[in-house]
Specification:
Thrombin, subunit H; 6-stranded antiparallel beta barrel; mainly beta; single chain; 47% strand; 2 domains; elongated
Length: 207
């Protein structure tokens, strides 16, 4: 895969795709999107910089080695697999195992994002966190994390609308509101999103 470089945007919203014609190469599309990347017992949210029929460029500040196998989930239904063929300065190039039709992929992703019930990529975690409420402090078990929310297990004392301070492993603290709760499971909405860089590897939240 060619090391096709593009400049960083000021706005990293989910989808904004434009054609970037490359003479004698794949059809490249410049894409500003967050993907869930799974690799060798770890997972993280990385930035997609561009994508073609045969590969993509990803950006992350965690160490990335040439030859690593990656599973890249662009949504709950679109997952691509490939191998890192170059890595430099917080970016890497991935060659897909199978060629894709990048135009169709981006069309599907755009349709999913417009659909009711769309949610951002979430990372699977198995981590204890502290939940501080007006009644005191307790511990909950997190089962997934995204920039704007978290799924958790609880003992039934977290009703919808309850406000709390969520303290993650490593001391990261965010104000949160219980968005839903049923049968010992719940979802939190974070009033201040987690930094995307904090979610490049879930290992920092494991305890």
């Amino acid at each position: 895969m060619n090391q096709h470089r593009i400049s960083d945007p000021n706005d990293e919203q989910e989808i904004a795709a434009t054609d970037a014609d490359r003479r004698g190469a794949d059809r490249y599309r410049t894409v500003w999107r967050i993907a869930k990347v799974i690799r060798n017992g770890d997972a993280g949210l990385w930035r997609v910089r561009n994508i073609s029929d045969n590969g993509m460029m990803l950006a992350a500040d965690v160490p990335i080695a040439v030859g690593e196998r990656l599973e890249i989930a662009l949504s709950d239904t679109v997952t691509l697999r490939g191998e890192v063929v170059w890595s430099n300065d917080g970016r890497c190039g991935v060659a897909f195992d199978k060629e894709v039709d990048v135009a169709d992929v981006l069309k599907q992703l755009a349709a999913e994002q417009r659909a009711t019930g769309y949610r951002q990529p979430r990372l699977p975690v198995h981590s204890q966190a502290q939940a501080v409420t007006d009644e005191g402090m307790g511990r909950i078990e997190l089962v997934d994390l995204s920039q704007h929310g978290a799924g958790f297990l609880h003992d039934g004392h977290f009703e919808v609308g309850k406000e709390l301070d969520l303290i993650l492993a490593g001391g990261v603290k965010r104000r949160a509101i219980v968005r839903w709760s049923r049968e010992g499971r719940g979802g939190l909405w974070l009033t201040q999103p987690l930094d995307r860089a904090d979610l490049e590897s879930i290992r920092r939240f494991e305890n």
